[in-house]
Design brief:
Layout (H helix, E strand, L loop, with lengths): L3 E6 L3 H14 L3 E6 L2 H8 L16 E4 L8 H10 L8 E5 L4 H9 L4 E4 L4 H18 L6
Parallel strand pairs: 1-2, 1-3, 3-4, 4-5
Helix pairs in contact: 1-5, 2-3
Length: 145
């Protein structure tokens, strides 16, 4: 089994910690990189700014993206991911607390692969993150870019 790289884009420190704990409990071999805003997410993905020394060939296997993040919102980040030849096939799971139908529609219209409302209970959160990890990292097949 190989190491899977996940980019988590979330400005909530408690949600970041929950995600780390959930991935640890899921027993999926992952490397989790965390950025707290949309600007840093794009810099990370496109190897700019503070991430200019990052290897552009080392793309995440999965992006967990919150919609309500500072600087550049999640939907704009999603649009830019899908517009770029090097990132357009990376699975993006929107993980948000939003119950708004317009947010759901916008996420899918902008190219989200999945839209998941963050569970409030820790046990359910762990279960959801584990299921997402197993599906997107171990079951789903992607084109080789």
């Amino acid at each position: 089994m190989s190491l899977h790289n996940i980019l988590l884009v979330d400005d909530s420190s408690s949600d970041v910690e929950l995600t780390k704990r959930a991935l640890s409990k899921s027993q999926i071999d992952t490397n989790l990189d965390v950025v707290e805003d949309g600007s840093d997410a794009l810099d990370y993905l496109f190897c700019r700014g503070a991430y200019s020394s990052r290897n552009p060939r080392s793309k995440p296997d999965l992006i967990l993206l919150d919609l309500n993040i500072p600087k550049i919102d999640g939907n704009e980040v999603l649009k830019r991911i899908r517009q770029n030849q090097n990132t357009k096939h990376i699975p993006v799971v929107v993980m948000t607390s939003s119950n708004e139908e317009r947010d759901l529609l916008a996420a899918y219209n902008n190219g989200a692969n999945s839209y998941v409302r963050k569970p409030l209970e820790f046990a359910r959160f762990v279960e959801v993150v584990s299921l997402l990890g197993h599906y997107w990292l171990e079951i789903n097949e992607l084109p080789r870019d």
